[in-house]
Amino acid sequence: MLRKISFSMKKIGSLAFASALMMLLVVATGCLNDDNKIPENCYDGILNNGEELVDCGGSICPPCDPCENGQYDALLGETWVDCGGECDPCDPSFNGVQDPGETGIDCGGDTGVACGELCGDGLLNGLEQGVDCGGPDCEPCPTCCDDLMNGDEIGVDCGGNYDSNIYLPCDNPNVTCGPCPAGVNCTNGIMDGDELYIDCGGANCPECEAILTWKANGTALVAEVSVTAELDGTTLNVGGLTATGAGIALVLEQPITGWIDGAQVQCSMASGSSCSYADPAANGYSTNFGGGVTVEISYIDAQPGGFVVGTFVGTVVGMTGESMNIAQGAFQMAIQ
Asked: How far apart are alpha carbons 287 and 250 in whole angstroms?
């Protein structure tokens, strides 16, 4: 019994010593993380530990080889991505130069690469005028005089980094690219400044998009032909027509609360408000024949030139008594 106890104590002592030694090695090599666990090291063939590439870069592992990082490091002497300078010579079919026989930079001819395939690779190549833009294949390059909010602009033709190579200069030399007026930011998810709604409308933001969508017995519909909202006295009329001929019309009487954010309107035979739907075959359904539809107004500026946002759901009934389920209805549009 004493020998067993002695052996057990020796075993426990050895384990404790081994554990202490392991902890000492871990601390000495800086391998502990905030959770006091040993993370994967920089030689496991896995992209982890915040590495830039597998087993290199980040705050723990050695820096990555600039000749293998997939970037064009001109400051390090490269003449194109991971080649030239102190790296291996560039392949003629991938060197950032339009060589004899190529249609554009690194495309066409014997390269086997269509120039249009290079739009989106983050490089100035193909037939592009700017990085991934311009020319016959890519989207037009942004400028600060195209009446659009594009590139990294935060307003229409203002607030971008116009010194970067994603922008082309304006054709009009009298146009000066620069910051947006004070308080203008059409990308912050807030309705501020003179915006008509969140990040849209007003003098400096893109025009607000008109949207009207719903499901009729599970079929998703989008009013892409027409979308309208009109105030007739205190009555709000919302409607739209799809390309297939389906349409919906909401005739909403002003609720007791008035037209305020959060207002709710019940469409029914007894309420005075109605919801009507026509399917592509021109079969009509309405709350005037039965059923009911609930309309919730999440935002409204109830005046001509204002804006309205809301949802609707419920059931409309045909003249012969058949029901049509209306679900996931949503709208946002300017008020005429």
From this structure: 10
Residues 6+ apart with CB under 8 A from 207: 200, 201
What CA–CA distance (Å, rounded) separates 184 from 199?
9
The per-residue DSSP string of 265-315 comes to: EEESTTTS-EEEEE-TT--EEEEEEEEEEEEEEEEE--STT-EEEEEEEEE
Distance of CA 269 to the CA centre of its chain: 42
Per mean pLDDT, which range of 138-147, 150-159, 160-169, 293-302 is the poorest? Answer: 160-169
**Is 214 in contact with 312 (CB distance < 8 Å)?**
yes
Instruction: For 219-235, give one letter per residue: b (16+ CB within 10 A) or e.
Output: eebebeeebbbebeeee
Give the separation between CA 194 and CA 208, rounded to whole angstroms.
Answer: 12
Q: Hey, where are the domains in the chain?
A: 211-334
